[in-house]
Amino acid sequence: MMLDQIDAAVSLSLPPRLQSLIQTLRRQQDFSPEVACHCVQSANLQAEDLRFWADFDHPLADSYGRHLVYDGGTFEIMVMSWSPGDFSAVHDHGSAQWGAVQSFGPAEHSVYRLQHHQLSTEAIMPFSAGTVIPVDHTLIHQMGNPSQEPFLSLHVYGSDAQGPITGSARIFDLFAGSVQFTDGGVFFCLPQDQVTRELPGLSGDRPTTLRHHQQMLDRIQRMPAPLSVSLQHMAQDLALQIQALQG
């Protein structure tokens, strides 16, 4: 089959509301975060449309479950699974120029500012079920599940550039004091073989650093025993730094 025939067959195998979203996205001529939000809202997606890609039993070393649903060339659709306590690392979306995210549960959304190599928190806000938020190329944020119930979220990202749409995403690791680049999941404690390059010199203000370290330590403590020696040392150092930041 030709590529366009394969693409049509893939899209037709998806739930009808996802098919509608794909068709709406394909009809657009000019994209922006606001247009992406409108496309997602008009599809009227429900959580059951995404159940096939749910991954609440993702490895505990991963900060959340992550599955690609559809690759449209200039855009991609992904489903993320959030178990209680799951939080992404602080990140941006790499090469993505526009996008939209819809939560199907009581998520938390935090927005950050990077200025003179220092990270600070602009806002920490609830991200209620059904809400759609825009994503632009400048957004540095974090998403997570502070509740006791698992839920899914839908992510649409797009770009006119060549290469992976969310490739070269930046993770802002305040423990390592560096910006890490990755083409995969934006997880805490990312293994070195998943870091494509790293820029030192990152710092954070006190509240942002404290929250980051607490979440990173929580992620390590969720990992199954026995931990590697490097993770054991990291957990010990994080605990000491948290104590100092709280003092």
What does it look like?
This protein is of the alpha+beta class. The protein has 2 domains: 3-172 and 179-200, Jelly Rolls (Sandwich); 204-246. The protein is 28% helix and 30% strand. It has 5 helices and 12 strands. A hairpin with a 4-residue loop joins strand 9 and strand 10 (178-182). Helix 2 (16-27) packs antiparallel against helix 3.
Number of domains: 2
Shape: globular
In total, the number of strands is 12
> Which residues form runs of ≥5 with pLDDT under 50?
1-6
What is the H/E string? HHHEEEEEEEEEEEEHH
Query: End-to-end span in angstroms?
Result: 65 Å
User: What percent strand?
Assistant: 25-35%
CATH class of the largest domain: Mainly Beta
User: DSSP helix count?
Assistant: 5
Q: Provide the gyration radius in Å.
A: 18 Å
Helicity, in percent?
Answer: 25-40%
By secondary-structure content and strand pairing, the structural class works out as alpha+beta
Largest sheet: 5 strands, antiparallel
In the CATH classification, which architecture of the largest domain applies?
Sandwich
Mean of residue pLDDT values:
94
Query: And the CATH topology of the largest domain?
Result: Jelly Rolls
CATH H-level superfamily title of the largest domain: Jelly Rolls
Q: Order of strands side by side in the largest beta sheet?
A: 1-2-8-3-6
SSE map:
Blueprint: H1 3-12, H2 16-27, H3 33-43, E1 65-71, E2 75-82, E3 98-103, E4 107-115, E5 118-127, E6 132-136, E7 141-144, E8 151-158, E9 169-173, E10 178-182, E11 197-200, E12 203-204, H4 206-222, H5 229-246
